[in-house]
Amino acid sequence: MGQRQQPAPPILRNWPESSCRPSAPDYARRMQLAYPPSADGSTLLPFQRMFIVASLPG
Length: 58
What we know:
Layout: H1 9-12, H2 17-20, H3 24-34
InterPro entries: SAM-dependent_MTases_sf, Trans_acon_MeTrfase_C
GO molecular function, one term: trans-aconitate 2-methyltransferase activity
Region (Disordered): 1-20
């Protein structure tokens, strides 16, 4: 995986690390609270999806 880019480095440079970057467990907890799993354990995120298929002639 490539190197992660930070948004707005000059601004974030002066902020405490903890307020800028939530940890993976914190993010997972927030996602589970916002999008609780259904009875079968799957999670359906409530946004539209668009699937596009393109083909070239020939």
